[in-house]
């Protein structure tokens, strides 16, 4: 399913489906490069999401009717062999799952009827696709969780979630790149900074990348610059 809708005078959104799906996400990722390859002279920005991409364009170079026609032509072009290496990039993220930082682990264990060791194992044994980056700079939405640890958001969000917190919400997991309000169920924390000020999108990870969480102990967490003070997340 391909649907194109205007968002503003200088932007439109291209829908590839209406579900969170690996195949649809791959189509979005491939389409980004098809459009950039064919329309680089008029496109000013592309923002991908789970099943769509927002395309911003230079109104001095084109108009809505022309760019829709050109986007359809670009997406119909031969995409064989067209990709970057993002789908093959696996980024390992160290995570400390200790009780000092796993602010909601007890609630997760209660709701799932699993012990903390099993929750950690299920969370860290698979690779997650980066479906989208949003909410705040560098905040990557990763999916999908093992069904056994799918969790609803907190009924009362925290006013501040500590930087580096790793959380669960519905069938997704994510890392808070900065201290912001949030309602995800926090089960650990990474010592790594998820913001990369040298990159184009400020994020350590890009849409299409794979993320693998690697459990570390308290000593390693502190050695890598991790901070245990969770007062801001209480």
From TrEMBL:
Primary enzyme class: hydrolase
Pfam family, one: CT_C_D
Domain of life: Bacteria
Any one GO molecular-function label of the UniProt entry: 5-oxoprolinase (ATP-hydrolyzing) activity
SUPFAM superfamilies assigned: Cyclophilin-like (SSF50891), PH0987 N-terminal domain-like (SSF160467)
Domain Carboxyltransferase: 2-205
SMART domains per UniProt: AHS1
InterPro entries: CT_C_D, Cyclophilin-like_dom_sf, PxpB
Keywords, sorted A to Z: ATP-binding, Hydrolase, Nucleotide-binding
Known EC number: 3.5.2.9
Segments passing through the bilayer: none
Name used for this protein in its record: 5-oxoprolinase subunit PxpB
Organism in which the protein naturally occurs: Enterovibrio norvegicus
Lineage summary: Bacteria, Pseudomonadati, Pseudomonadota, Gammaproteobacteria, Vibrionales
